[in-house]
Amino acid sequence: MDLHGVTALEPAGRVLDGAVPPLAGDVWLAGGTWLFSEPQPGARRLLDLGGLGWEPVVLDDDGDLRVAATCTVQQLTAWTGAPPLVAQCADAFLAGWKVQGVATVGGNLVTALPAAPMVSLLAALDGVAELWTPPAAPGAEPARRHLPVAELVTGDRTTALAPGELVREVVVPRAHLAARTAFRRATLTPLGRSASLVVGRLDAPEHGGQLVVTVTAATRAPLQLRWPSPSSLAEQGGPDAAAAAVDAAVDGSQPRRTWHDDVHGHPAWRRAMALAQVREVVRELLA
Ligand SMILES: Cc1cc2nc3c(=O)[nH]c(=O)nc-3n(C[C@H](O)[C@H](O)[C@H](O)COP(=O)(O)OP(=O)(O)OC[C@H]3O[C@@H](n4cnc5c(N)ncnc54)[C@H](O)[C@@H]3O)c2cc1C
To answer: What is the pLDDT of residues 161-170, one digit of tens each?
Structure first.
């Protein structure tokens, strides 16, 4: 794809350290696997994140996982400490290994397709994104704020990013990395895009013991429901109660509460698949 409106390519570091001012029409360039696949009518200058040299995957002193926005899907899956959920979500990409070698975690979050596997993964683990706004003057630091990944994505291809804002990294708490998870995914065709992807997470008792169900792909943005403990859900009725709670939450009031509708699945079918998957993941985690 030729991006006809683009007239300049700038290393992103020069904008992030204030040496070059941000401009209208700036677009962050990560792996380019989405950016170069569609017309980008508003794009005037590409800010290349490639040379920033951010460490892709780091376990910090608290044992929390820090995934750089520029970490490729392949680098994340190759990380030796990765829990099984990482590979399960990477396998949910319609894209093969060639694309996964350059597609980045940050690019996947910001593209914000309902079937974005890194959204499914990092929302389910309650990852928190650090967002940077480039400074207006040389030598100043970027302004920083933090947002849960489940809130960063607000709808089909929409995010809570302000214009010019950048995803720097996502932090996953150690406790959630160690949690038990259950994964279910449905596609309309054997190699199709995810039409419903449900992850259940059960934290260890010493980490609070909460049970979290995250629905993606079936809804336009991540939908999460939480129970303080498996026993609290069991008292309400267990897997059927969890499915009923998800069904009641999808009331059409906002994108994350709306069944998604596109060529990859009718909303009624997505609803049926998602509710069955919710029952299954809860049953698996309660067993
Ligand atoms: C064959 C094929 C199959 C695909 N299958 C899937 C799929 O199943 N699911 C899916 O979700 N996607 C899929 N994609 C789309 C795309 O490959 C992924 O979403 C990928 O993760 C995008 O990452 P990237 O690094 O290439 O982003 P880019 O294409 O470089 O950028 C994507 C968007 O994110 C912005 N961006 C990138 N990084 C940042 C950042 N750190 N901060 C702020 N904004 C940023 C860019 O400005 C741009 O708007 C597929 C693509 C192909 C070619």
So the answer is: 999 999 999 9
What are the residue ranges of helices labelled H in the chain?
12-16, 73-78, 84-90, 97-100, 105-111, 117-124, 149-152, 174-177, 230-236, 239-249, 267-286
DSSP code, position 161:
P
Ligand 1 site, residue 129, Cβ cutoff 6 A? no
Q: What pLDDT shows up at residue 138?
A: 84
Report which protein residue has its CA nearest ligand 1's atom 18. 108
Q: Is the CB of 30 under 6 A from ligand 1?
A: yes
Number of neighbouring beta carbons within 10 Å of residue 208:
11
In angstroms, what is the span from residue 217 Cα to ligand 1's centroid? 16
* pLDDT for position 1: 54
Percentage with pLDDT > 70 across the chain: 100
Crossing angle of helices 239-249 and 267-286, rounded to 10°: 150
Buried b (16+ CB within 10 A) or exposed e, 135-165: beeeeeebeeeebbbbbbbbbbeebebeebb
Q: What is the CA radius of gyration of the chain?
A: 19
pLDDT at 136: 85
In angstroms, the CA 18 to CA 2 distance is 29
Answer for the pair 280, 184: CB distance below 8 angstroms, yes or no.
yes
Average pLDDT over residues 209-237: 97
pTM of the full structure: 0.97
* Beta-strand relationship, 166-172 and 128-133: antiparallel
The rounded distance, in Å, linking the Cα atoms of 225 and 245 is: 8
User: Which pLDDT band, with edges at 50, 70 and 90, does 54 fall under?
Assistant: very high
